Amino acid sequence: MKRVVLDSSTLAKLSGDDIVELCDASGQVIGRFRPAVYDDPAAQPQISDEEMKRRLSEGGGRSLAEIMADWEKRA
Fold first, then answer.
1. pTM for the complete prediction?
2. Domain coordinates of the chain in residue numbers?
3. Which helix (H) or strand (E) holds 8?
4. Phi, psi at 20, each rounded to 5°
5. Can you tell me the distance from the alpha carbon of 43 to that of 22, in angstroms, rounded to the nearest whole number?
6. What Å distances lie between residue 36 and 15, 33, 40, CA to CA?
7. What DSSP line would sit under 11-74, residue for residue?
8. Is the separation of the CB atoms in 34 and 19 below 8 Å?
9. CB 37 within 8 A of CB 17
10. What is the DSSP letter of 7?
11. Phi, psi of 23 (to 5 degrees)
12. Mean pLDDT for back-to-back runs of 10 residues, the chain (75 residues)
C-alpha cells in the first residue's frame, strides 16, 4: 500500500465523517476517500453474530410476490 502525506489545506478538505470523491483537474473521479471513522469498532453494528443468526432464522416479512402485487396496485 502506498502512503501519501497531506498538507494542512488538503487535510482540512477531507476532515469530517463524509466520504469524499477525489477528482482530477477535468472533474473525472479518480477515487473516493473513506475516513478512518468507518473502520472504528464503535461505528460498527452492535449486534453479536449469534443474534444476527437468530434474527435471520426467524424469517418473517413478505414474499417478493406480495411486494410486487402491492406495486402493481399502486401503478
1. 0.45
2. 8-74
3. helix 8-14
4. -120, 130
5. 23
6. 10, 9, 7
7. HHHH-SSS-EEEE-TTS-EEEEE--GGGG-GGGS----HHHHHHHHHH--S--HHHHHHHHHHH
8. yes
9. yes
10. P
11. -125, 155
12. 91 87 95 81 78 87 91 88
Q: Pick from 46, 18, 50: which is nearest to 32 by CA?
A: 18
Please report, for residues 7, 11, 48, 49, the alpha-carbon distance to residue 4 in angstroms, rounded to integers and kept in the order given. 10, 11, 36, 36
Which cell goes with 8?
Answer: 494542512
Q: Given the C-alpha cell 477528482, which residue does it identify? A: 23
| C-alpha cell, 41 | 469498532
Q: How far apart are CA 49 and CA 56, in angstroms?
A: 11
One-letter amino acid at 74 equals R
